[in-house]
Amino acid sequence: MKRIIAAILSVAMLLSIGVVSFADFNAPRLTNEEWKEYYMSLRDENTLPTLNVGADETQVSLCWHADKAEAKAEVRVSKNADMSDARLFSGKTTPAENDSQLVCRVTITDLEENTTYYYQWHTGKDWSEICEYTTRSFGDHKVLVMGDIQITEIYDDGNDANQIREGYIWNNMLAEALEKNPDVSYFVTPGDNTSSGCTDGEWQTLLMPKALRSLPMAMAIGNHDKKGMTYNYFTNMPNEYYGKHFRGLDRDFWFRYGDVLYLFYDSTSGDAPDHMAMTKEAVALNQDAKWRIGVVHHGIYGAGDAIGDLETELLLTTIFAPIFETYDFDLVITGHTHSQGRSHFMEDRKVVAAAEGGKTYTDPEGVMYLNASCATSTLVLDTDAEHLAYTYRNETPAYSTIEFIGNKLILETRKGDNSELIDTVTIERTTDERNDNSAKNVVKRLAYKIVEFVGFVYTKIDTLVRMFA
């Protein structure tokens, strides 16, 4: 009987290993020379696709460039590696940032959970290589978070040494994170995806890691992205909200995955009325979401040089914190400062509850803020503030994961080179009820009308300044 039981356990273990291996990402860690050779093979193109999250867990979206004369916004998807019985998804083409190409965007729908799919996009001349995408659970799941990838542009003299270096760090940090967390469902970044926001080469290098063909991304807009317009040509985000007063690259967006509602804000825009309007719309459509997560680029209640920065502490906190507080957000992900840190639970510009590492907090009052470090270089700043529960002082970039299990949100932060755990905290929700319409929050939102008016005036003045600059 013992031998039979041992045999059964052995088979079960082998099967479980097989499942984990089956779900692994294609995320090879490369040497400097291997990366440079790979980089040079793709350097002079701009046709790598972006795989983005969809409006919900049953969707993902693609965005890519193709020659104008031959571009077709088509993707085919199959459950079979030989692409038999493939479904065809069509989208739309729009002008590119150059005269010779079009941007193709397609959304894949009706995906099933815990299923492997194979897909190809139409390059214009033919179908692309076959890529693999495995959906995870549509309920309990894990998310990968990294900030400020910020790939540098290639300079006019052709010097791309910084881009090669940053691409190498980015590829290997992503490989480390996915090797230790092969079960992540999607990737969240709070902006500054590129450095100048003006060149397609930055996006090409950002998209080089092979794992990104299998890992949907949700990408906020940062101040470096806003230096140009390339974000507009390399992304396909769901539920984009352009508002009444946004202009140019300005936009917010939201998506839902299982019980989690994400709201992404363009914190480079002071347009408070539109930020509030997007929030009301998204929340109204997702009243049953258990968790609410905000994503902004600037380090509100962040670490590093966000401390004492008037723009962040005065203007941006005034615009965004009341939105997060009156709509009872659980967590807000920020970046910008290149310094990793996490706040206590915040409300009305003060700590309303402690959030010490290694502990679980049940139905806490206030909002927690996670400030993500730069994925390619981290600033080591010896700055402390009352709002911070911890800061990470190390030159090695860090990454975070958020795991949603039942009624718990488990946040972990690890070193990017060896995944050593450096911080963890758990939030537990025992009720799905929110305080959106409590008397206190209704009054706060009425008072926020003043902020909306000032924000509206600010955007108008800013528009005039830009016109005559």
Annotation, overall tally of beta strands: 24
CATH architecture of the largest domain: 4-Layer Sandwich
- Could you name the CATH class of the largest domain? Alpha Beta
What is the general shape? globular
Structural class: alpha+beta
CATH topology of the largest domain: Purple Acid Phosphatase, chain A, domain 2
Q: Would you identify the CATH H-level superfamily of the largest domain?
A: Metallo-dependent phosphatases
Poorly predicted ranges: 1-23
Radius of gyration: 22 Å
Mean pLDDT: 91
How many helix segments?
A: 8
| Widest beta sheet: strand line-up | 11-10-9-22-23-24-19
What proportion strand? 25-35%
Query: What helical percentage do the residues reach?
Result: 25-40%
Note the gap between the termini. Answer: 84 Å
Quick overview:
The protein is α+β, with helices and mostly antiparallel strands and 469 residues long.
Model description:
There is one protein chain. The chain has 469 residues and is α+β, with helices and mostly antiparallel strands. It has two domains: 58-134, Purple acid phosphatase-like, N-terminal (Immunoglobulin-like, Sandwich), CATH 2.60.40; 141-428, 4-Layer Sandwich (Purple Acid Phosphatase, chain A, domain 2), CATH 3.60.21. It is built from eight helices and 24 strands. It has helices at 2-23, 32-42, 161-180, 200-206, 231-234, 272-285, 310-326, 439-468, and strands at residues 50-53, 60-67, 74-78, 87-90, 92-95, 101-108, 116-121, 131-134, 141-145, 184-189, 217-219, 253-257, 260-264, 291-295, 331-334, 341-343, 345-347, 350-353, 360-362, 368-371, 388-391, 398-405, 408-415, 421-428. The strands form five sheets. A seven-stranded mixed β-sheet has the order 11-10-9-22-23-24-19, covered by helices on one side. Strand 14 (291-295), helix 7 (310-326) and strand 15 (331-334) form a beta-alpha-beta unit. The protein is globular. Residues 1-23 have low confidence and may be disordered.
